[in-house]
Amino acid sequence: MFNPGEIRAAYVLTKKPLPSKPPNLNDVVRRVAMHGWFLARKGDGEPGVKRRRKDNKNV
Fold this sequence. Notes:
There is one protein chain. With 59 residues, the chain is an all-alpha fold. The chain has one domain (4-58). The protein has helices at 4-13, 25-36, 49-58. The chain is globular and about 30 Å long.
């Protein structure tokens, strides 16, 4: 779903080091959402599908 450049960008934008092995899809989606509106707090749960679609247009 994400190409290597998009994965790298997601980690750079959240100022986290790129992992040595490829991250799973959920990790990349969370990183993209954290760049926009998702705060990733303990009780927040996972980002929703509708919101992901809106935010992916901006990234």
